[in-house]
Amino acid sequence: MIQWKGLKPVCCGIVNMSFPLSDQPVFGEWFVFVEVQGQTYNKSFEVQKYVMPKFELVIVPPPYIRDLSSCEQASVTAR
Prior knowledge:
Layout: E1 28-36, E2 39-47, E3 57-60, E4 75-78
Antiparallel strand pairs: 1-2, 3-4
């Protein structure tokens, strides 16, 4: 948990902040609370385990390239 007070806006009421993230975060739903002129706003977000997407990309080039200065057609499929 962290709290910032007395922030100076960069422009138009916008504040640029950063927060270091852990390489072993606690999974679950998290909330950000902001108080502006006595009004409280909140936003939730969920931290989940990252799973690498699995996909296959197949590129079938032409059997030979005739001219390096021109474009050749190839077949590209993904699933």
